[in-house]
């Protein structure tokens, strides 16, 4: 089967039609998809060759899990569904971590799995090569699962996959692509635009919009709670207009950590900023946009939300109607796509004249700016690598000071990410990290997928920075070759303590110092800068905080991929995570 496919040699049956693989590409192109991720096998070589001829960016990774993570990042950076393929059998098995991750992270990735021809699959036989029934393995982890059994199903199945994965709470879909349909043809009928076959940018009920606008206008201290979906839907400009009309603070959820252009100074990370806590406590109206109101936000009803709860009105913009009122009661639900609802709300506020800014907003802005300076000074007071190993706060502070203003920030790791929430000195407009599932190791695939999809869509190659730790970086280090092959302007800054930092901290807090920390330490012989050179990238070894900025500057000036190996203090990394008590409240079992 693998070397000689009889169907690949068979003449087409309908000379006036179009092969299934071309039709699939036509359907995806109608959605604005221009990037294809996967490792091609015989089921997909026709698809890949045709996509390349059309000018698509075709990305072949080194592991199907990384391929799926790349596609997830592509969906986030473009605001469109993404397409990822996997070889039949072991390829789909390898992709399963990415499928599960996309489900929990709400990423609209369409996974297409190759499969043996049905004439082989449905035989009662043993010892079939590279075969397992895949739909039972995957259907519980996706929003939609189906198989193209007959060529004339291709339109309906692809459209249904896109329709379902983009509706309600977004998520992945699975399409099985058996070998017997690859070269069959279908009529070359006109391709429908998305608005003709699915609901696009749905608005909310007009009476509810008016009710919400009235509450906002009457509020003394309203806030905007901005979730992950604001950024993945590319609704930033619309939210900027709404924030200007509300004249209020913007509170980031843990998933919504990108900064909207023009709102950087009034945007405060929930729980990790003193100002964010005060703004939440004092608020009498919360407009929650495209967020699940999940554990990291304390469901919007406990911890920082308890004070003033009786006086606070909730307006919830949510595409998934079944999510309304689940995690907390809602006063005014606005059911619809944030891309459609937010402009409606802005128009209603304009008609009412918009809100006037009060003194609290400017005070919040000044306090947050002062806190940013304070945390930088605090980081600078910690060991800088001159006399002892660098403190993680220095690692984060100096790296983020050198982040390019127009860049894409990718986060990965355990303890180092916790440090980033407090000590980051930049306000990126695009941040990608695994905020719901906690799936470390996604950083390098996320960086590659996001940067390639962004380049395919915009025609420009924006700089990327992956700020990560050694344990996480090792997961998919082979994808460095993809970044090098594609000549991405990517700088990977790796904090190295040769341990699982969060887990070491758990041992210490559970059993005390001096207890065996089984399974958390590994070889101290690894040099990531040297590994990078082996892949054809540049490598730098930095021990002092003062050398971090110049090394990053050199990397971007040089172009291509650079990996910077930065030794950090393992004791500080596991014991001195800032605001760790706040982070732990996300997992406060039995209290939420």
How would you summarize this macromolecular structure in one to three sentences?
Helix content is about 40%, strand content about 15%.
Name its key features:
592 residues, 20 strands, disordered N terminus, Thiamine pyrophosphate-binding protein, thiamine pyrophosphate, TPP_enzyme_TPP-bd, THDP-binding
Question: Which SSEs are present, and which pair or pack?
Answer:
Elements (H helix, E strand, L loop, with lengths): L5 H4 L7 E3 H10 L5 E3 L7 H9 L3 E3 L4 H15 L3 E5 L3 H16 L3 E7 L2 H4 L13 H4 L5 E4 L6 H13 L6 E6 L6 E3 L6 H4 L8 H13 L3 E5 L1 H5 L3 H11 L3 E3 L14 E3 L4 H9 L2 E5 L23 E6 L13 E4 L2 H14 L7 H22 L11 H10 L6 E4 L3 H9 L7 E2 L10 H16 L5 E6 H4 L6 H6 L4 E7 L4 H11 L16 H7 L3 E4 L6 H11 L3 E6 L2 H6 L4 H5 L8
Parallel strand pairs: 2-3, 2-4, 4-5, 5-7, 6-7, 9-10, 9-12, 10-11, 12-13, 13-14, 15-16, 15-17, 17-18, 18-20, 19-20
Antiparallel strand pairs: 1-8
Helix pairs in contact: 2-3, 2-8, 4-5, 4-18, 10-14, 12-14, 15-16, 16-17
Task: Explain what the structure shows.
The protein is an alpha/beta fold and 592 residues long. It has 25 helices and 20 strands. Strands 3-2-4-5-7-6 form a six-stranded parallel beta sheet, with helices on both faces. Helix 12 runs parallel beside helix 14. The longest helix is centred in the middle third of the chain and has 22 residues, at 359-380. The protein is globular and about 70 Å long. Mean pLDDT is 92; it is low at 1-15.
């Amino acid at each position: 089967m693998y070397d000689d496919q009889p169907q690949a040699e068979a003449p087409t049956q309908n000379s006036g039609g179009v092969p299934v693989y071309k039709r699939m590409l036509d359907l995806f192109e109608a959605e604005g998809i221009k990037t294809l991720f996967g490792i091609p096998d015989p089921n997909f070589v026709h698809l890949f060759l045709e996509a390349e001829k059309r000018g698509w960016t075709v990305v072949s990774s080194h592991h199907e899990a990384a391929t799926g993570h790349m596609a997830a990042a592509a969906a986030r950076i473009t605001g469109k569904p993404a397409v990822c393929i996997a070889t039949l059998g072991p390829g789909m098995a390898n992709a399963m971590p990415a499928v599960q991750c996309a489900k929990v992270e709400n990423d609209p990735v369409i996974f297409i799995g190759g499969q043996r021809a049905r004439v082989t699959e449905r035989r009662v036989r043993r010892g079939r090569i590279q075969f397992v029934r895949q739909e039972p393995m995957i259907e519980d982890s996706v929003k939609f699962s189906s198989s193209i059994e007959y060529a004339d199903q291709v339109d309906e199945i692809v459209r249904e996959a896109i329709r379902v994965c983009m509706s309600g709470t977004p998520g992945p879909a699975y399409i099985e692509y058996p070998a017997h349909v690859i070269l069959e043809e279908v009529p070359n009928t006109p391709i429908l635009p998305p608005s003709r076959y699915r609901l696009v940018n749905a608005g909310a009920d007009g009476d509810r919009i008016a009710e919400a606008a009235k509450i906002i206008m009457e509020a003394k201290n309203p806030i905007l709670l901005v979730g992950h979906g604001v950024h993945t839907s590319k609704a930033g400009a619309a939210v900027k207009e709404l924030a200007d009309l509300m004249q209020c603070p913007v509170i980031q959820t843990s998933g919504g950590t990108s900064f909207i252009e023009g709102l950087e100074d009034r945007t405060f990370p929930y729980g990790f900023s003193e100002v964010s806590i005060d703004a939440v406590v004092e608020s009498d109206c919360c407009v929650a946009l495209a967020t699940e109101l999940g554990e990291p936000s304390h469901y919007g009803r406990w911890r920082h939300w308890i004070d003033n709860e009786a006086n606070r009105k909730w307006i919830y913009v949510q595409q998934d109607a079944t999510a309304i009122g689940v995690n907390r009661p809602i006063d005014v639900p606005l059911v619809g796509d944030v891309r459609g609802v937010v402009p409606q709300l802005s128009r209603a506020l304009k008609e009412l004249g918009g809100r006037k800014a009060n003194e609290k907003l400017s005070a919040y802005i000044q306090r947050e700016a002062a806190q940013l300076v304070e945390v930088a000074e605090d980081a600078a007071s910690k060991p800088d690598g001159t006399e002892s190993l660098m403190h993680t706060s220095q690692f984060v502070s100096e790296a983020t000071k050198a982040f390019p203003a127009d860049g894409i920030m990718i986060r990965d790791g355990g303890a180092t990410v916790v440090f980033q929430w407090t000590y980051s000195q930049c306000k990126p407009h695009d941040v990608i990290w695994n905020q719901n599932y906690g799936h470390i190791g996604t950083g390098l695939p996320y960086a590659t997928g996001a940067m390639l999809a962004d380049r395919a869509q915009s025609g420009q190659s924006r700089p990327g920075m992956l700020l990560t730790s050694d344990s996480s970086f090792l997961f998919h280090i082979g994808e460095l070759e993809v970044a090098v092959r594609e000549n991405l302007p990517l700088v990977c800054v790796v904090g190295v303590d040769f341990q699982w930092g969060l887990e070491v901290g758990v041992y210490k807090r559970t059993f005390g110092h001096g207890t065996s920390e089984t399974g958390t330490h590994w070889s101290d012989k690894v040099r990531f800068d040297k590994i990078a050179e082996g892949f054809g990238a540049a490598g730098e070894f930095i021990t002092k905080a003062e050398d971090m900025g110049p090394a990053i500057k050199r990397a971007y000036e040089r172009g291509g991929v650079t990996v910077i190996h930065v030794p950090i203090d393992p004791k500080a990394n596991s014991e001195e995570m800032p605001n760790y008590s706040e982070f732990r409240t996300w997992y406060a079992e039995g209290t939420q």
